[in-house]
Design brief:
With about 425 residues, this protein is mostly beta strands. It is built from two helices and 34 strands. Strands 1-2-3-34-33-32 form a six-stranded antiparallel β-sheet, with no helix packed on it. Strands 4-5-6-7 form a four-stranded antiparallel β-sheet, with no helix packed on it. The radius of gyration is 31 Å and the shape is globular.
Length: about 425
């Protein structure tokens, strides 16, 4: 009897152990299933990323969505910034051979695009070419055009012809002005109505009124570009070969300012009245007030051109050799924006006051980086060779010129 009772107690104990095991298995299964389901349901989690980095990665993916040729900002409320309208490529326009830097004519609303490979200027209205204006016969190296708001003319220097500036009214050439050798990037002075043309091959600046030269000014070696300062009425000419900037008033030089090596371009900041000079050979930007240098700012490799953002007061400098854009406030760098990883060719950017963005074409990658403040907020891809960008305040479009040397070029038009 005692033995039977002992066996019965053992059987009961064994059954209890089995029950405990079953319960434990059920509990373990119940607690592990939701975690698995949660991970599977969240496609933003990357199993190859360490867990402590996943939250940052997931957050980053919700900031902006970029497709092949569309920028679309997420309606996130993590910041107080107003969400801009999506930006997309709304048109592709075929122009002449090897197009370069475009110019906007506020009088007729046209965009003028020099085509050096075909000796023409493509004239665009909206998203259509309305004319191809032949400006020179034979070899030409058309690089830029400058609009004169006083007489409505567009001036096109041609360094390939050595001494010619073509003058266009609407879609017709109304004059060819003989200047110095290898005329390059000109500028308009609305104060006196003159056009100032740097003559790189003769170390002079030709001053044009209408279709006539009214003055020839000796400057430094290899003058490259000119910029107007509306605050003091001076013209600043970068002398690439002598590391100076010639300051001109009317038809006279009033100062020669020593800057860094190989000054390429100058940009006026209407907010503080400074002139910013990109020194291609010394990786700096010289800041000029009047006829004196008030600062030298170190930037990226081989700085090209600078763009002023009137919304935030920043100067954006494209660094050809480092794939970055240096953002300057006053005489200090407040940001270095990486616009691409690897090799890049950054030259001409533009500011869009409509949405506050700065557009930076990268010829090598076939992309245009879109910057807000000190951050890239998107990239537009068109798989071509974007060289420069120009804003049209009439329709709010940004015209991106694709260089394509030796081939018919294209302009892709960005808009909301």
């Amino acid at each position: 009897m005692a033995q039977t009772k002992k066996l019965s107690n053992g059987l009961i104990a064994g059954i209890a152990v089995v029950i405990v095991i079953v319960v434990l298995v059920a509990i373990l299964h119940h607690t592990s299933s939701p975690a698995t389901a949660s991970t599977t349901a969240n496609p933003a989690v990357n199993s190859s990323i360490p867990m402590h980095n996943q939250s940052a990665t997931i957050k980053a993916t919700t900031t902006i969505s970029v497709t092949s040729s569309i920028i679309q900002q997420n309606q996130s409320t993590t910041t107080n910034h107003t969400t801009a309208s999506p930006i997309s490529v709304i048109a592709n326009i075929t122009v002449g051979l090897g197009p370069y830097f475009a110019t906007y004519d506020s009088g007729n609303g046209y965009i003028y695009v020099p085509d050096p490979g075909s000796d023409t200027i493509s004239v665009i209205s909206g998203t259509s070419v309305v004319s191809n204006v032949t400006v020179t016969a034979g070899y030409s190296v058309l690089r830029s055009a400058t609009y004169d708001s006083g007489n409505g003319y567009v001036y096109v220097p041609d360094p390939g012809s050595n001494t010619t500036v073509s003058v266009i009214s609407g879609t017709s050439v109304v004059g060819n002005v003989t200047v110095g050798y290898s005329p390059l990037f000109a500028t308009y002075d609305p104060g006196n109505g003159y056009i100032y043309v740097p003559d790189q091959g003769s170390n002079t600046v030709s001053v044009i009124s209408g279709t006539s030269v009214v003055g020839t000014i000796a400057v430094g070696s290899n003058p490259y570009s000119a910029t107007y300062d509306s605050g003091n009425g001076y013209i600043y000419v970068t002398n690439y070969g002598s590391n100076t900037v010639s300051v001109i008033s009317g038809t006279s030089v009033v100062g020669n300012v020593t800057v860094g090596y190989s000054p390429l371009s100058a940009t006026y900041d209407s907010g503080n009245g400074y002139i910013y000079v990109t020194n291609y050979g010394s990786n700096t930007v010289s800041v000029i007030s009047g006829t004196s240098v008030v600062g030298n700012v170190t930037v990226g490799y081989f700085p090209q051109f600078a763009t002023y953002d009137s919304g935030n007061g920043y100067i954006y400098v494209t660094n050809y050799g480092s794939g970055t854009v240096s953002v300057i406030s006053g005489t200090s760098v407040v940001g270095n924006v990486t616009v691409t990883v690897g090799y890049s060719v950054l030259r001409y950017a533009t500011y869009d006051p409509g949405n506050g963005y700065v557009y930076v074409p990268n010829q090598y990658s076939g992309q245009v980086a879109v910057i807000s403040g000190t951050s890239v907020v998107g990239t537009v891809t068109d798989k071509s060779s974007p060289e420069s960008a120009t804003y049209d305040p009439g329709n709010g479009y940004v015209y991106v010129v694709n260089l394509n040397p030796g081939h018919f070029g294209t302009i892709f038009v960005l808009g909301s």
